[in-house]
Amino acid sequence: MIQLLNTVLIGITAGGIYSLMAISMVLVWRSTRVINFAQAGMALLSTYFGYEAMVRLDSFWIALPVAMLGGALFAALIEVVFMRLLVKHSSSGPIASVAPIIATLGLLGVIRAVVSMIWGAQDVRIVGPLSNDGFSVGGETLVFSPLKLLILISVMVLMLLLSLLFQKTNIGLALRASAYAPEIARLSGVKVDLVRTMGWALAGAAGAVAGMFQTVNGNGNLSPDSIEFSLLLVSGFIAAVIGGLESLVGAVIGGLLLGILISFVLMYISSALFFIAPFLILLVVLFIRPQGIIGAKAGRRA
Amino acid sequence: MSLNVSNLTVHHGAICAINQLSIAVPTGKLAAIIGSNGAGKTTLLRTLSGLNKPTSGTINWMGESISGVKAEKLVRKGISHVSEGKSVVPELSVRENLLLGAIWRKDNKEAKQSLEEVISIFPRLGERIEQRSDTLSGGERQMLAIGRAIMSKPKLLLLDEPSLGLAPLVVEQIFQSIRDLANNMQLTVLLVEQNAMGALKIADLGIVLNLGKVVAVNHAQALIDDPAVRAAYLGY
Question: CB of B144 within 8 A of CB of B98?
Answer without folding.
Answer: yes
